[in-house]
């Protein structure tokens, strides 16, 4: 399957931890088909991770939870992505979020947090 260039760039930027750029990349193609909950789920995962980085835990929890809800219906593999692995990552992120609405930026940056390297299976 041939994937949109923005999707491939999203994977690259996600792996680099550039979550804001991830949002911009996927929003372009999601706007063409807003019923695509797979893209919306990936978008919201990236936005949630961005919120977490800056201490907006309430926003992170909301976005990451929505991402899990949207992506669950696409497993085990969709667009070459191991969606089940992504769901496990999201669940680990949810568990790692502190029980607060906001935390200081310095604390958010220093917080140990799960990581995931996305890969597209092209076979």
Automatic annotation (TrEMBL):
Transmembrane regions: none
Superkingdom as given in the UniProt entry: Bacteria
Pfam family, one: DUF309
Annotated InterPro entries: DUF309 (IPR005500), TTHA0068_sf (IPR023203)
Alphabetical list of SUPFAM superfamilies matching this protein: TTHA0068-like (SSF140663)
UniProt protein name: DUF309 domain-containing protein
Source organism per UniProt: Brevibacillus choshinensis
